[in-house]
Design brief:
Layout: E1 2-6, E2 9-12, H1 21-28, E3 35-46, E4 54-63, E5 70-72, E6 91-95, H2 99-110, E7 114-118, H3 124-135, H4 169-179, H5 196-212, E8 216-218, E9 223-229, E10 232-238, E11 243-245, E12 248-251, H6 258-267, E13 271-273, E14 276-285, H7 286-294, E15 312-314, E16 319-326, E17 330-333, E18 343-346, E19 355-364, H8 366-374, H9 380-395, E20 402-406, H10 407-412, E21 429-431, H11 440-456, E22 465-470, E23 477-479, E24 492-494, H12 505-521
Parallel strand pairs: 6-7, 6-12, 7-8, 12-24, 20-21
Antiparallel strand pairs: 1-4, 1-5, 2-4, 3-4, 9-10, 10-11, 13-23, 14-19, 14-22, 15-16, 16-19, 17-18, 20-22
Helix pairs in contact: 2-5, 2-12, 4-12, 8-9
Length: 523
């Protein structure tokens, strides 16, 4: 008797994907009594043939003998399902309470380490109030916003859990998210997402589990200095005057912690430029995207989720691609610095808002930034991002109103007099020439991308609205770490997206676990 993973099989839309026992008997070439259990393992939608949209599913089965069309299967270890160890004398300060920081802290406290999590933003309930206030016209809080606060930048997104990494630690991340309240379908969906409305509860539950196991949180406190002794980090100093001694410091500061990057540079940490991408949010009606992806027969089928897409155009020197696609979502105000406009996308779990949006971005290299006039060095990308955000702020007329333009007008280089779809950016938009924000190379690549994508999704480039500027796709700085996962400043562990070693919730969480496991191994 053993567990096996089946080959994928097609399931018609409308059929219960768990009602497949008879089909599995035939697929696996086994008798009814030989199939002991069945569990859905992965489910995706195949919409290539619009007349035959269907699910593609694989299953984890338990059988009494080896079946055909299946391979032996065993889940990786869930490294957080462990008995809490006896307390150690080690104290670790974790800077930042995004996915990397939370997962690192949780593993450490379960290993008996005394952990203090320092977060410059607010706890999640207060953070929600502050963010919502800013969305609808309030003042910007530069420490608590879409970028900073419990849960990190991913909290006010779609809660997407897609990732290109293949680490066995992803299993731990998904299981822990479910234990903390995420929907169980993230374990089986090929495009898993939690949704902002549920993710705020998930990060609150993880906070409580860390507290229950002896960890501490200090919110609304920014790290303004590191305590150094002969090149080794011995703790941190906070803007509220508190000094925390520590044996190790895990730096999970997030990709928008520009002042932290400057501090590290001043203290002698090795930093380098990291490639990133910039562009706009492109917004179409959810109805249009559903129709384009599913066809008229299935566009409104109740069993199908709001449709998504992933588009890439590889040019001779630059690429244009969709990023952080939010079906049935909204464009949000994601600024974290005064006098700059930043946009991002967000969806709730139901993904039932009127529009669907995605970042449409162009890759930016060190050579690009230098040619644009922002010099060389680790902060060239930061300076470029900040200038784009300032231009967008001015173009929107101030008050964090975002500049916007119809797709067709952007391509034709003319100002929009009305919008094809109602822009969802909550602080309001102003019709503007978005070409004036970007260097010519980026504008040209965006235009080429839109024309290319219109051939892939008919109508993509002939309707919809663009809102600027999408500048925080990933960190423009990498905090260099060695084979021991430490910075050249000993006992400082840069981790996650802000350190330049991850890109999204899952990879950041995995990196946090990896760092924590290394620290525990060294006790």
């Amino acid at each position: 008797m053993g567990f096996y993973l089946t080959k994928p099989i097609n399931i018609p839309i409308g059929q219960n994907v768990n009602d497949v026992v008879a089909r599995l008997h035939n697929l696996l070439k086994i008798k009814p009594g030989e199939l002991k259990s069945v569990a859905l393992h992965r489910q995706s939608v195949d919409a290539r043939d619009k007349s035959n949209v269907h699910f593609v599913c694989s299953y984890l089965v338990e059988t009494t003998r080896a079946p055909q069309n299946a391979v032996p299967f065993k889940y990786p270890a869930d490294v957080l399902m462990r008995t809490v160890s006896n307390p150690t004398k080690m104290h670790v300060v974790v800077v930042g309470a995004g996915p990397a920081g939370l997962f690192a802290a949780l593993y450490l406290v379960k290993s008996g380490v005394h952990v203090t999590v320092v977060e410059r933003g607010s706890d999640v309930d207060e953070r929600q109030k502050i963010v919502r206030c800013f969305f609808y016209g309030g003042e910007l809080n530069e420490n608590t916003n879409v970028q900073f606060g419990l849960g990190g930048a991913g909290t006010f997104s779609d809660g997407k859990l897609t990732s290109g990494i293949s680490s066995p630690l992803t299993h731990t991340v998904f299981r822990q998210l479910v234990r903390s309240g995420a929907p169980e379908d993230i374990l089986t969906s090929s495009l898993p997402h939690v949704g902002t409305d549920r993710l705020v509860c998930v990060v609150a539950d993880m906070r409580d589990e860390i507290l229950h196991n002896g960890g501490e949180f200090i919110f609304n406190a920014e790290v303004t200095d590191l305590l150094l002794d002969k090149g080794s980090v011995k703790g941190v100093r906070l803007d509220n005057g508190i000094t925390l001694s520590a044996d190790k410091v895990v730096l999970a500061c997030g990709h928008s912690a520009r002042d932290t990057f400057r501090l590290l540079n001043a203290l002698g940490a090795e930093l380098t430029f990291k490639p990133f991408a910039v562009g706009v949010r492109v917004e179409h009606s959810r109805k249009f995207i559903n129709l384009a992806q599913y066809g008229s027969l299935f566009a409104t089928h109740r069993d199908l989720p709001a449709a998504s897409y992933k588009l890439v155009m590889n040019g001779d020197t630059h690429s244009c691609y969709s990023f952080c696609m939010c079906p049935g979502g909204v464009v949000v105000a994601a600024a974290s610095e005064s006098d700059g406009v930043v946009v991002n996308g967000m969806s709730n779990y139901a993904r039932n808002d009127a529009n669907s949006n995605s970042a449409l971005v162009v890759n930016v290299t060190a050579e690009d930034v230098a040619s644009y006039g922002y010099g060389n060095g680790p902060f060239a990308g930061v300076n470029f991002q900040r200038e784009l955000e300032r231009r967008a702020f001015i173009l929107g007329g101030g008050k964090y109103i975002a500049p916007a333009q119809n797709v067709t007008d952007f391509l034709a280089n003319r100002t929009s007099t009305s919008f094809d779809v109602s822009p969802s950016y909550p602080r309001g938009v102003k019709s503007a020439d978005l070409r004036t924000i970007f260097p010519e190379q980026i504008t040209r690549t965006l235009c080429e991308g839109l024309e290319c994508f219109d051939r892939k999704i008919r109508g993509f480039g002939t309707n919809g609205v663009l809102t600027a500027v999408e500048s925080r796709t990933s960190s423009p700085v990498r905090i260099v770490r060695g084979d021991n996962l430490q910075s050249n400043l000993k006992n400082l562990y840069p981790v996650g997206e802000g350190a330049g070693y991850a890109g999204g919730i899952v990879s950041s969480a995995v990196d946090g676990l990896r760092i924590a496991m290394r620290i525990v191994d060294e006790i």
